[in-house]
Design a protein that fits this description.
single chain; alpha+beta
Length: 79
C-alpha cells in the first residue's frame, strides 16, 4: 500500500508560496492520485493568520488575487 508521499509532494509543489498551514481538499486530491491535471486547489486554513501568511507567500511568488469573497480567495499566476 502506498503512503502517497509522491502525490502529496506534487500537490504542495502547486501551492502558491509553497507549503501552508492548512488542509488541501476537493478535486485536487482526486486528480493528483489519478494522475490527472489539477484544475484548482481548495485549501482550508487553521486560522486567519495562517490564511494571511499564505496570501503573503503567494504574492511573493508572483501570484495575484483576482477574486475575494467572505469564504474564498482566487489567485492566478502573474506569468
Amino acid at each position: 500500500m502506498s503512503n502517497y508521499e509522491k502525490e502529496l509532494k506534487a500537490l504542495i509543489a502547486q501551492l502558491p508560496g509553497g507549503p501552508i498551514k492548512g488542509w488541501i481538499a476537493g478535486g485536487a486530491i482526486t486528480s493528483t492520485v489519478s494522475a490527472k491535471p489539477v484544475n484548482d486547489l481548495d485549501v482550508y486554513f487553521r486560522s486567519e493568520q495562517d490564511f494571511l501568511d499564505a496570501c503573503e507567500n503567494a504574492y511573493d511568488d508572483g501570484y495575484w488575487c483576482v477574486c475575494f469573497t467572505d469564504r474564498s480567495a482566487t489567485f492566478v499566476s502573474g506569468d
